[in-house]
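Following up on my earlier thread - several people asked me to post the actual chain instead of describing it. Fair enough. Here it is, all 342 residues.
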Amino acid sequence: MTESILALVTSISTSIATTSDLLRLLVLPVFAWAAVRDIKTRRIPSNIWLPLLIVGAIALSLDALRLAPFDTFLGRLFLIQAGISLFFVAPLGYLFWRLGGFGGADAKALITIAVILPTFPTYFIGTAAYPLVDTPTGVFSFTVLTNTVILAAVIPLSIFLYNAAQGRLSSQTIFARPVDVESLPDRHGRLFETQSGFTRNGLDLDALRMYLRWRGMTLAEIRSDPAQHRDPASITETFEPTDGGTAVGPQTDGGVVETKSDAVDNSADDPWGAARFLEEIDGTAYGTTPAMLREGLETIIDRDEIWVSPGFPFIVPMFLGLVVSFTYGDLLFGYLGWVGLF
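Reply from S.P.:
Thanks for posting it. Predicted structure:
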């Protein structure tokens, strides 16, 4: 009885897809969970990628065993597709991270996709086979990447449309929007303004939260008496800054229990205690320098509204890119075929 049920399940499974392609569907629920977490916290735990990498290695091994000794056209094509995915697409994730275009989780996600999705899967549902649109190279991870980039373009477009609806039309309206200053501790992104104008390299709001928690103060307290808090002698004990995430510790202040230091730095050359903050913490506070932190604090102390470039949850368009890739296929080649170029 058990053997007949197993045979039936195996028969149904193989009529839908190969075992390796069925395993690859596991990326969808994992990335769905990661997308929700990215929206809420902008933090993705690193331990979710290893199981998917193992699944990818198993699926890749099953394909290799099925196509070995690679002396056929399909076997050689598999080697080319796997090579492009593993040695071109995967390094792109690392390169984008090094250049600052990706966060660490985004890079790990793309590397994982390169390992688990090197070739186009095929799923038979009824008389239809999915994905609908293939590409000449058939490197599925590259299709996921291009679909993700296309879908991610909706984010700056939506920012522009929001600003346009408010009557704001300028060079910065595609990258940022004005928000209430008091809401900064609960937001993700970067300041898009300095005291002298607009910037693409403003203070990271995670770093701002780290600073507030380190001082054990709210932004409202800082803004209520900036002259006093600018003086480094006003900093007595300091606290654990966490990693600056909104879901880690208090959202708007640093009232955590653990004391990190009770020393006082009376240096008049360190307004806001910016240099001391960066020296005491572990890490770099997202590339923040003392000058950047001071500039950011001086910019927000006396304004009610400020332009902010929101932190894009890139895992979200990556998940949507996966869904589109598994169902429709390659958006770019679909469009090129529609206009008659392919």
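The chain has 15 helices and seven strands. That should answer part of your original question.
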